[in-house]
Write a structure and sequence with these properties.
Helices cover 5% and strands 40% of the residues. By secondary structure, the protein is mostly beta strands. The protein has a domain of 136 residues: Thrombin, subunit H, CATH 2.40.10.10. Strands 1, 2, 4, 5, 6, 7, 8, 9 and 17 form a nine-stranded mixed β-sheet that branches. The protein starts with a strand and ends with a strand.
Length: 271
């Protein structure tokens, strides 16, 4: 898997709530690796269509999470917080809100982050499943910096994750259509970020990529209603999300969600 080294807090979009303890990394923590969307091996002979290996974490990392309950429940990808000594959500430059507890889902690459209660708008889950040809909008912190991706769903596959943990799950496959801002390389750091439909309803979580083929794999919408997450989300079955998305303005909507901290950067500290 390829790691991109970025400045510890990357670019900041100006959200500055008054809460949250200050986190000051030491001299050896001034840089981090954006936790990658794990690279898939589509050619490996296996009963599964997609094979992902989660390597042992050796450094600090970052990813994306999104708020599903104002009581302090956030969703992210499990591999983003795997092997972390402590986890924070970035709420302002050099300021983090501590994650009190991580609840891992054993049936999918997904985890619940539990923090203090926050007065922030939560996402809502889409009522309808996406169909082939539908568009999806992904927002978060690719390569550790604010960014957004527009994709088109081309089907579903079975994915097997091995290495630090083993999970077998069904995922949706998206063809990447556009990035904003435009940049090359991996989408690492987008891991754990939400996938929205046009109405702004969440239809998945970014979990893996095939960079060479321009494909993004996201957790199946069914996992949002997994009994293991019974106390996590507020907006189950809601057809209207926080903001509608469009092909031309999806990056503006993503910026708004990051500024208000509905979508946040996850910082994994490894000691």
């Amino acid at each position: 898997m390829l790691f991109f080294i970025v400045r510890y807090y990357g670019q900041q979009e100006g959200y500055a709530p008054g809460a949250g303890p200050e986190y000051r990394p030491g001299a050896d923590q001034s840089q981090e690796a954006a936790s990658p969307l794990p690279s898939t091996d589509l050619e490996r002979i296996s009963p599964y269509d997609v094979n992902v290996e989660i390597e042992r974490r050796s450094s600090h990392g970052s990813g994306t999470a999104f708020l599903v309950n104002a009581n302090g429940r956030w969703l992210t990808a499990r591999h983003v917080v795997q092997g972390c000594s402590s986890v924070y959500l970035q709420v302002a430059p050099r300021r983090g809100m501590a994650v009190k507890r991580v609840q891992e889902n054993t049936r999918a690459d997904m985890a619940v982050l539990i923090t203090q209660a926050v007065n922030v708008a939560v996402v809502q889950y889409a009522a309808d499943m996406p169909n082939r040809g539908d568009v999806g909008f992904m927002t978060g912190y690719p390569q550790g910096n604010p960014g957004d991706v527009y994709g088109q769903m081309i089907g579903s596959k079975r994915m097997q994750t091995s290495g630090q943990y083993r999970v077998r799950e069904r995922v949706l496959v998206w063809a990447e259509r556009q990035r904003r801002p435009n940049y090359n390389g991996s989408l690492g750091g987008l891991s754990g970020g939400p996938v929205f439909d046009r109405d702004g309803g969440v239809i998945g979580i970014a979990v893996a990529e095939s960079q060479r083929r321009g494909r993004i794999f996201t957790a199946h919408p069914d996992v949002l209603h997994d009994p293991q997450l019974a106390d996590a989300g507020d907006g189950k079955g809601t057809s209207k999300g926080v903001y509608p998305f469009g092909n031309d303005d999806f990056d503006n909507v993503g910026s708004q969600l990051r500024r208000q901290l509905t979508v946040a950067k996850v910082v994994c500290v490894k000691r």
